[in-house]
């Protein structure tokens, strides 16, 4: 039998396995991958607070660390919303809830609505002129808040649990604040829009899990996407029976905002608007509980829905016929002008809103198509109420900070949004020629010396420890105390080479 020789360990106790080490190239590649991931998750520059721009429609975040929600729903709560940049630069290590876009809002960071322990690091003092540490500024009094800022969403008031909830939520277009009877651009579960239970398997919903309102910024974002006021997440459960398909509408106005603006009920089922989506909850006593699939049979349910739709259409046609007859009677006069009045004009067409169905008493939400704005009546009676809601007249812009530049050589990137390599190269490109040449020469000198220092380690296969690096740079600086300390640490007891794994080397 062949004799098996003993395998002895290497002389140096500082050697490490290949699995625990990486080359410089691997390290740089890993850092570049992390930077790319960070830029994808946070694509915008975050070095400027939006408060100086005034009230905007912008992406907002609620900081639950600075403004923790009350334990009881009825307790008073001082809410606050911060802009995208402040959520990163001033509240980066706090618990945040992303609210997505809300209109007519001014950043509350560094104001009387946020604690002095968390100042705004991006704005400058109005008197001192120094940047950062801004606290106690007057908050905008006309900012509007709802329970979203306390981490609750929808008419059900659910909190977001990323481990349990999934599905699709829809943001109301918003026709009023909570104080005005609206919802304040709340996010809604489809079942709650219709007043249905989200925990009932009787044909109302196919899952007992909950749809996510809005994700915390600490949650991974690759599985969710927001488009036109709709929040999507993978594995969305089917929409409840009677809820319109997502491709059929562009915006939604919840029943609360419709109640606050009942005039919009006239438009349901007309050009640019879908038929009403009724609310079947307790707050709608005139609407009886509908027969839905899974309760008394699909055939009976479908017949009931069709009959209800036909009845509604008949009512509308009858109303329009009566109105047309009335209009005809009122305007059934000779179209010719009497002798001696050659400039007389024919009777004007009636305003569009007078041809619409009467305002229904039922409670429902209104779903709008992409071109809905083109079909509002703009007569002298209707335009004033549209003017109070300018987003019904024209599509509104949402403010977005400048995108962080990815080209490392342009020097235009945001402070705090680029890598150290990018910032170094940008600073070098902005230097005057003489200083830039001196910097490059110093860098090359350091590189050559560092290569000479590392070569013996590469030849022997010995790993470079943190103390070796400290000693090397202490020698470059001529730091005798640093050299003595490094020698003491290296000569000290302990197993191996006494190397400690540290970041930053």
Automatic annotation (TrEMBL):
<feature type="zinc finger region" description="UBR-type">
    <location>
        <begin position="47"/>
        <end position="125"/>
    </location>
</feature>
<dbReference type="GO" id="GO:0008270">
    <property type="term" value="F:zinc ion binding"/>
</dbReference>
<dbReference type="Pfam" id="PF02207">
    <property type="entry name" value="zf-UBR"/>
</dbReference>
<feature type="region of interest" description="Disordered">
    <location>
        <begin position="310"/>
        <end position="353"/>
    </location>
</feature>
<keyword id="KW-0862">Zinc</keyword>
<dbReference type="GO" id="GO:0061630">
    <property type="term" value="F:ubiquitin protein ligase activity"/>
</dbReference>
<dbReference type="InterPro" id="IPR040204">
    <property type="entry name" value="UBR7"/>
</dbReference>
<feature type="region of interest" description="Disordered">
    <location>
        <begin position="485"/>
        <end position="505"/>
    </location>
</feature>
<keyword id="KW-0863">Zinc-finger</keyword>
<protein>
    <recommendedName>
        <fullName>UBR-type domain-containing protein</fullName>
    </recommendedName>
</protein>
<feature type="compositionally biased region" description="Basic and acidic residues">
    <location>
        <begin position="496"/>
        <end position="505"/>
    </location>
</feature>
<dbReference type="InterPro" id="IPR047506">
    <property type="entry name" value="UBR7-like_UBR-box"/>
</dbReference>
<feature type="domain" description="UBR-type">
    <location>
        <begin position="47"/>
        <end position="125"/>
    </location>
</feature>
<dbReference type="GO" id="GO:0005737">
    <property type="term" value="C:cytoplasm"/>
</dbReference>
<feature type="region of interest" description="Disordered">
    <location>
        <begin position="1"/>
        <end position="22"/>
    </location>
</feature>
<keyword id="KW-0479">Metal-binding</keyword>
<feature type="region of interest" description="Disordered">
    <location>
        <begin position="397"/>
        <end position="418"/>
    </location>
</feature>
<feature type="compositionally biased region" description="Polar residues">
    <location>
        <begin position="12"/>
        <end position="22"/>
    </location>
</feature>
<dbReference type="InterPro" id="IPR003126">
    <property type="entry name" value="Znf_UBR"/>
</dbReference>
